[in-house]
Amino acid sequence: xxxxxxxxxxxxxxxxxxxxxxxxxxxxxxxxxxxxxxxxxxxxxxxxxxxxxxxxxxxxxxxxxxxxxxxxxxxxxxxxxxxxxxxxxxxxxxxxxxxxxxxxxxxxxxxxxxxxxxxxxxxxxxxxxxxxxxxxxxxxxxxxxxxxxxxxxxxxxxxxxxxxxxxxxxxxxxxxxxxxxxxxxxxxxxxxxxxxxxxxxxxxxxxxxxxxxxxxxxxxxxxxxxxxxxxxxxxxxxxxxxxxxxxxxxxxxxxxxxxxxxxxxxxxxxxxxxxxxxxxxxxxxxxxxxxxxxxx
Length: 296
Prior knowledge:
The protein is an alpha+beta fold.
């Protein structure tokens, strides 16, 4: 910890000179993301992806090192009030701001089924991760997940799948400088107060999501491998001026309208199609009202 702070102080002391040379003091964070899914009606799979994040005051960039997004990166800049997904191969920038109310149902949080299950438990000391001591917290919630592909124009409720999500997070208080950067940027980009009043940094998170009652499950594990104070090249945060900007949520609205149009046409042509979709939902996830809590 003393070494980390010493390096940060050293970088801050030469900040004017570094800035003149095109660098600013910050952190480089290496992270591994592992996602698994099973019982989803397709072969079970596990994917591993490595990302690298450059953080400094008012700016953060996350590069996808491998996987399906290899070569792409996200930018969070205090002046943008949105996250930018930069796709160099397509010369495109997807703009992602706060989720509009008209799309929130399609993206998942349609209705809270069990508000009592949202409690956050302090489970005591966690393991040492990336050289830092952690505290272990767990929270859970039960929601109705909307799958728009199962929705009928005449029966939107049939797209709802009961879903339980259990999150385990391991945070450290030993990286207050990085935590302050992250929280300040969160507030400036989102225009809201960060959810935690502290400057804790999450070093590992495990999110277990059960869909319905037929054993469908997704697990997303994100773990920090290393955190290094560094002089960050300011060129990393330059938004490509010649790339086309596309609003992600405008694209989603267009896709939703297209799906709804196709669904209405199919329902009008094929007798019993709405019932078939309901049967497919039940076969994959079980009836909508039968979710029982079961912690992993």
